[in-house]
Amino acid sequence: MHNLLNFILKYNYWFLFVLLEIISFTLLFRFNQFQGSAFFTTANGVAGTVYKASSEVTSYFHLKDINDRLTDRNIRLEQQVVGLRKVLKAKGDSLQPIDSVSRVLFHTLSMIKANVIDNSINKRNNYLTLDRGKADGVKPEMGVIDGRGVVGIVYLTSAHYSVVLPILNSKTSISCKIREHDYYGFLRWDGKDPLHANLEDIPRYARCKKGDVVVTSGYSEVFPQGIFVGIVEKIFNSADGMSYQLRVRLSTDFSRLTTVRVISNSEMKEVRALKQQVAEGEDTNK
């Protein structure tokens, strides 16, 4: 306290000067219309700039939440479209409301949100690491998607982490089809371009063309039907000439993956149990 008093006494004339300046500017801007208008215009401009910068910073930190909501919404809308297509193709059945279709689709499907903590795209066999594992409900052979489309398949899990085989891995094979015509094949990566993969084993009588949409077929236990995969860019013959091979531009940008969704399908347990019974029966007959 003593030091503070000494400081004030030592520089009292500076404090007096500042006080007089404040009083002078107050009188100037308060009782002179032109100066007052100029001051408030400048002050409002500075305040506006500060508020704008503050708003942009706040918006930036909210982008992740917005992106998560858009991803979930995009996935749900995509599945609603699949459900509506099924209803429209069903003969003799009355059309169901879109909300009813959505409830049926998502009764068995649930999404586990996960963040990508490690990723590679420049190897022949690339892997993703997610920050979710067994404790979060993630299991091997579950499908992984993001807001743009298919990402890959869960390969290994620990308590809190999991490793994913993405499309960009030579070991990955995903059952896909041409959306408009239902011709299906298997999507495989040739280890070259991270933006493209090949849809193989398309029959030669299939009607397909550049620009066709490729989606998951729903014939595997991993992905439901209709998840977006990419667009056909080129059609050419397979090596043996017995089928077509389609060059597909992938919808997912693997160089920018940050958040994904792991698909948990409660019906898959029943499907796998039936297949296990069939396999055991074949072994018994042998």
Topology:
Layout: H1 2-10, H2 12-31, H3 33-89, H4 98-108, E1 109-119, E2 128-130, E3 143-145, E4 150-157, E5 162-166, E6 174-178, E7 184-188, E8 196-203, E9 213-216, E10 228-237, E11 243-250, E12 259-265, H5 268-285
Antiparallel strand pairs: 1-2, 1-12, 2-5, 3-4, 3-12, 4-5, 6-7, 6-9, 7-8, 8-11, 9-10, 10-11
Q: Could you explain the architecture of this structure?
A:
The structure is a single chain. This protein is of the alpha+beta class. It has a domain at 112-267: Thrombin, subunit H (Beta Barrel). It has helices spanning 2-10, 12-31, 33-89, 98-108, 268-285; strands at 109-119, 128-130, 143-145, 150-157, 162-166, 174-178, 184-188, 196-203, 213-216, 228-237, 243-250, 259-265. The strands form two sheets. Strands 1-2-5-4-3-12 form a six-stranded antiparallel β-barrel. The protein has a six-stranded antiparallel beta barrel with strand order 6-7-8-11-10-9. The chain is elongated. The termini are far apart. Residues 93-107 have low confidence and may be disordered.
Main attributes of the structure:
27% strand; 6-stranded antiparallel β-barrel; 6-stranded antiparallel barrel; alpha+beta; Thrombin, subunit H
